[in-house]
Amino acid sequence: MTQDELKKAAALAALDYVLEGAIIGVGTGSTVNHFIDGLGGIKARITGAVSSSEASSARLRALGIPLVDLAEVDELPVYVDGADEIDGGFSMIKGGGGALTREKIVAAVSRRFVCICDASKQVATLGRFPLPVEVIPMAARHVARELAALGGQPKLREGFVTDNGNLILDVHGLAIAEPAKLEARINQIVGVVTNGLFAQRGADVLLLAAPEGVRREQRG
Ligand SMILES: O=C[C@H](O)[C@H](O)[C@H](O)COP(=O)(O)O
């Protein structure tokens, strides 16, 4: 099986978590794209979707799935999203596609985070994948210096602007022993919007696709 076939298998398994009549939180990325396509087939069963990016919104719209503004919603039952890395405690690195901030917002109002991944995303320790940090443009140099002081090597994602009009610094070489602490520490730097560590609010369910099938794991 190709990596894309594995992503699709994990994504389609997440359709089991879509509740009748619900508004579903939808993440961003190539794995989620398969989930959105699957959602198109059962759209009559849902009220709509809260999207985490312009790219996902466009795909949802093209399939006729109603978009719901997060400003109209207090809580979502389920949020489905991929990850760039996930560890044994269900902490993740996200933001490879630059959608980390809106993803974190939608995840924050969701009762259950269902993470869909192919098996290559599961790691013992987070940090091989460079950690994305969204920054206000005028603060980029300052934030880069602060991240270097924390032991990382930040690199500006060239030619990329987030849906929020900001920049991304991809931080290489961080040893992420305590993801929740590092998440909080980086978010304290003035000019940081948020960083791609999802540890304070990690995943609740992991659907991990391998050639043998999709493994379902529950946090705790
Ligand atoms: O900003 C992008 C998101 O955090 C994605 O969930 C993450 O990068 C995984 O993407 P993919 O499913 O394309 O591997």
From TrEMBL:
Keyword Transferase: no
Family stated for the protein in its record: Belongs to the ribose 5-phosphate isomerase family.
Enzyme Commission code(s) on record: 5.3.1.6
Pfam families for the chain: Rib_5-P_isom_A (PF06026)
Stretches that traverse the bilayer: none
Keywords, sorted A to Z: Isomerase
Entries under HAMAP family matching the protein: Rib_5P_isom_A (MF_00170)
Residue numbers annotated as active site: 103 (proton acceptor)
GO molecular function: ribose-5-phosphate isomerase activity
NCBIfam families documented for this protein: PRK00702.1 (NF001924), rpiA (TIGR00021)
BP GO terms, sorted: D-ribose metabolic process; pentose-phosphate shunt, non-oxidative branch
Binding sites annotated in the UniProt record for substrate: 28-31, 81-84, 94-97, 121
Function: Catalyzes the reversible conversion of ribose-5-phosphate to ribulose 5-phosphate.
Protein known as: Ribose-5-phosphate isomerase A
Cellular component terms per the entry's GO annotation: cytosol
Catalytic function, reaction form: aldehydo-D-ribose 5-phosphate = D-ribulose 5-phosphate
Pathway: Carbohydrate degradation; pentose phosphate pathway; D-ribose 5-phosphate from D-ribulose 5-phosphate (non-oxidative stage): step 1/1
Quaternary structure note: Homodimer.
